[in-house]
Amino acid sequence: xxxxxxxxxxQTRLSEWAELVRDCQxxxxxxxxxxxxxxxxxxxxxxxxxxxxxxxxxxxxxxxxQAFVEVPSSAIHSENLAPEHKVAAVIRxxxxxxxxxxxxxxxxxxxxxxxxxxxxx
Length: 121
Hints:
Oligomer: single chain
Number of helices: 5
């Protein structure tokens, strides 16, 4: 188990590295990473190692964060639909997730929904 001091030091380093990564990503258009690294007196390998560590820390933190809020099924159950709204499609997955799409869904809504679903995979 790491001591409190070493955890603080690790968080400080990650914060500094995240700032470094942001700076590199905001470098002038046309400037290559090699050039940016040379200008900031770090090796390209060191930059990519720090980038990897920042990404790993971000992903570890993201795993502990709830990405979706569960909605009670009674709030979205098809029984709550007006009689003129018919279910046109049902999408289910193995995690007890069900999505019912009515015939009233607009093409722009469906396009947005499919885009979000593709990004989530």
